[in-house]
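We emphasize that the prediction below concerns an isolated chain of 761 residues; any contacts that depend on oligomerization or on bound cofactors are therefore not represented. The input was used exactly as deposited, without trimming of termini.
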Amino acid sequence: MGSSWSRSAGPLGVSAGGLLVGSLAWLLGHSRVAELAWAVGTVPVLLVVAVSIIDALRRGRTGVDIVALLSMVGALALGEYLAGIIIALMFSTGSALEEHARARARRELSALIGRVPQVATRYEDGGLVQVPVDSLRPGERLLIKGGEVIPVDGLVLSAEAVLDESALTGEALPVAHKQGARVRSGPVNAGPPFELRVLAPAAESTYAGVVRLVQSAQASKAPFVRLADRYALFFVPFTLALSALAWVLSGDPVRALAVLVVATPCPLLLAAPVAIVSGISRAARRGVLIKDGAALETLARARILLFDKTGTLTTGQARLTAIETTGDSEPEELLRLSASLEQVSQHVMAGSIVSAARERGLSLLLPGESEERPGAGMSGEVDGHRLKLGSYAWVGGPGPPTPWARAVLRRMGYEGCSGVFVSVDGEMAGALLLADEIRPEAPRALRLLRKAGVSRLVMVSGDRADVAEIIASALEVDAVLAERSPQEKVQAVRTERRAGVTLMVGDGINDAPALAAADVGVAMGARGSGASSEAADVVVLVDRMDRLVEALLVARRARAIALQSVLMGMGLSLVAMGFAAAGMLGPVAGALLQEGIDVAAILNALRALGGGGLLPVRHALPAESVSRLKAEHQELRPVLERIQSLADRLDGLEPRQQKSELLALEGVLDARLLPHERSDETELYPTLARLLGGEDPLGSMSHTHREIAHLGRLLQRRVSDLSEEGPDPAEQRELRRLLYGLGAILQLHFAQEEELFEAVS
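Result of the prediction step, given as a token string:
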């Protein structure tokens, strides 16, 4: 920002100083000194404007600056030095504001290039040597350590390589590559060290191609046209014609100068930048960095949004979504044993399993005799039990899957999630299912974007088609483009640009070229890659999707106010030009009147400092209250999983065992779930209703509470009526229906409440 601001601040300082010195001299009676000071203060600005106009004309562009230039030249030629310095001051002030609004708050591609590995570990003469990446040649053998970025495209020589490819493909979960598989540069080694054979030099590898794509996409973007320049097409010719006509009809060149002075487009040069800068400031206060005025203006006109999936619409982190058991283990006990063993695992999903156990308050033990087999799983002893965790092939052993295992594998395929199978003392005990979850605020954010005027939402993801379709169907986007490479994402953006102004929202390195190619690139910068933030025009610094909605609304308000200020200022200027042409307004009086018009336009433009965001709730819940509510929901997740698991397993249990598990579930519902729902209805909802306003803002949510209570009572009555032998087939069908119904409505209700918590936080 420094250099551009200094270039504008120089003329601004000269003109302001000239006006001040000249005014003091005039007050002291030294009129010639005053005129000299005013002239000296005008000339540097005049020269800057002349150079700017010549440069613009060479590029085939013109603008309202020519009116300011003619005004200053005419003022000096006709001895109207005070009018000249006033025009110079207003012009240099507007230029400084505009340069400030446009200044980039980033270093070009620094984060993207900074992530590229500079050294690699190469096998050489029977040992390992650190060498520059640029010196690597095809055929050489490298050791890729845990946590390192793969520097070049290569071939896996070890038994397996487990890679975090989220930055390049959008795939949230680690991907295992077997021996002989070709891997690209850019991913992070998420497993143990492995050997890699170089297939291409660094300059020809995938990651270098991503850098070139960003540079190419940025270069292909159309240049920004200032708001003021768009009105110059009719305003400048009209001003020059009216000025010439006044001179011809009156024979007085001063009258022509008066027309030029009041026509000097300071509302264009000042009000528009003030409104734009105010909008940028307003967005920054809400955690959104809009890097320049061009980005804000374009953001305000956006109608088509393209989203990456992982880390943008979803959290980008694997989370435990379900615990499937074979019936011999309690879900929480299975998680406790598994998480205890996973504490010593290097696998990426191990951290998610351990975090899930700790969130539920489970007490973990240190495992004994643990052994990890990369790509398969691990084994060890926990609390006197022998455990095996990992893929079904590793845990289940040879032979066809059991009916239970087939059902779990089918569910994993349908839902696009991953599973960690668990055996205890040699017997299959269950599976832990993990998936990349939709951001809690994403559904509401997309609804608000549509309400704000966005006509088309497109998901563009590098993830698998089945996974992308599942997320898309839950969010009701208009189109899904899955399994797209960075190059294909750029092409998708260019295709959508033909239909209107586009925004591309992403967070990974693979999104950087598409962000640069879009009319406005938006990076989720809180946890996203530095590359995406550098390539983007807008960076959401708070890890919330709804801040993008606020940025869009702020941009539209700022642009609307800029237009209002410009049209108001131009309208008043046109009236003043008529008086000047009729000889009723001299150059100095015209310059002072123009100052009044400027003040009015600027005061209107400053309204962009406020408003424009989402309509606030009357009050927000304290952060600690929101955290407590979320924690309570997290504690109730095992109850929901228990309901769903029992519904799935009910047919496979003996009648007496069915009754036993139903009675145990009834006790949990009575002790934990139903009291929580009653407390929400009587204590939480009245508070939320006051915050949200309106007659009955939570009426539908209260109805859901009543339905949960109704299903809970029906289930309790059914269970209490069971005989000692357990349910008969008809009772079993009814119980299963109630369990599925209760599980479904709880799943929906939890999602609604969590979205509500986000809205009032």
